[in-house]
Amino acid sequence: xxxxxxxxxxxRLGRNIRAARxxxxxxxxxxxxxxxxxxxxxxxxxxGMKNITIINCQRLACALSTSIDKLLExxxxxxxxxxxxxxxxxxxxxxxxxxxxxxxx
Length: 105
Fold this sequence. Notes:
Structural class: mainly alpha
GO molecular function, one term: DNA binding
CATH superfamily: lambda repressor-like DNA-binding domains
CATH topology: 434 Repressor (Amino-terminal Domain)
Protein name: Transcriptional regulator, XRE family
Number of strands: 2
CATH architecture: Orthogonal Bundle
Pfam families: HTH_3
InterPro entries: Cro/C1-type_HTH, Lambda_DNA-bd_dom_sf
Largest sheet: 2 strands, antiparallel
Domain HTH cro/C1-type: 17-71
């Protein structure tokens, strides 16, 4: 994936996260409280200024009562791009209480 495509993907993901936050009726402060991520970090992600880790994406998805799939809708345009973003075997995810869960595929 080229640098431009990475930047576009980060921007689209950030917009999706912001839309989900607004739809849920949460401020950045409330989302910060629920996800354990700083308000500054959430703002940076929403503006597409930084890439997000799968763990932090899962934390936001859980806090927003949605799935990572929903947050990634429209982020990647081709099947090959989407295929390159799948979670590797044994990745660590966070449940709603902030506890780690190992997900074996």
